[in-house]
């Protein structure tokens, strides 16, 4: 079982009993989603922005315009951090301070480099699209040279990471357990609704199978 070494950077201090440093568990959290919250500094101001990402092995990939200030700031700093979080439930307790949520979150830290090789860039962009919905890249128009040249691709090599998972019920004070107040968990799940075709789409073009597969898996 491969784990990240615990350090001052990745150590979970509050709720340490819910922490994991297991690489496979962290990768599972990353792979379920495709949006991460990336932190960076611009003009000495801390900023966090949601970004689409793809994962290949121990690499996380981000992309944007060649003038994207976040990506340029990351490259200048040569380091990055990103958090991915999935909300699984509202934990409603008998007192306000014991309200919580069930969740899976992973925070990763790594070194950042720019990818310039056009073949590698195209494979990375395929990874990012397919992280959103599997098998999508093969069904769309191929990327052209102008688009590829105008896209900045950043690779973050994961050096360390940690995850925190809460998957339990209400934890109330013993003195509150007999209060006439409802307590419990409201499970939350992100679902897909039936695909809506673009208004300008030719009426003879059907919804592709990979989109229907995604809908059926997540409805």
Automatic annotation (TrEMBL):
Domain of life: Bacteria
Gene3D superfamilies in the record: Electron Transport, Fmn-binding Protein, Chain A
Protein name: Flavin-nucleotide-binding protein
